[in-house]
Design a protein that fits this description.
With 107 residues, the chain is α+β, with helices and mostly antiparallel strands. It has a single domain, classed as Arc Repressor Mutant, subunit A. Helix content is 55%, strand content 14%. It contains four helices and three strands. It has a three-stranded antiparallel sheet. It starts with 10 loop residues before the first helix and ends in a 6-residue tail after the last helix.
């Protein structure tokens, strides 16, 4: 059975959507992702614009402005739901880890 698109998100997808809690253009997103992730995650322009097009097509984001080639985007309700579902999935993984490995247990 094929994986449902955007049921789970990569780190890059997660941070791009997180940036779009407020209106941003592509360059803003490329600057914000490393800041939000402490430098752990970076998004190249090819990956970013490909994902933005996919997010648009899936209804996770909406285009808010277009000034020449500069386009701005914001999360839709579906995008917020996808982000919240990913957050819940990650929290469940952390809880499973803590349950199995013992919270704070340095084995």
């Amino acid at each position: 059975m094929p994986r449902q698109k955007f049921k789970t998100l990569t780190e890059q997808m997660f941070y791009i959507l997180l940036c779009l809690d407020s209106e941003c253009c592509g360059m803003d997103i490329m600057d914000k992702v490393p800041l939000l992730s402490g430098g752990r995650v970076r998004v190249g322009s090819g990956t970013l614009y490909n994902l933005l097009e996919q997010f648009l097509a899936a209804g996770l984001i909406a285009e808010t402005r277009a000034l020449g080639r500069r386009r701005s985007y914001v999360l839709t309700r579906a995008g917020r739901e996808a982000l919240a579902a990913e957050y819940a999935r990650l929290r469940a993984q952390l809880e499973d880890h803590d349950r199995v490995m013992g919270k704070g247990d340095a084995r």
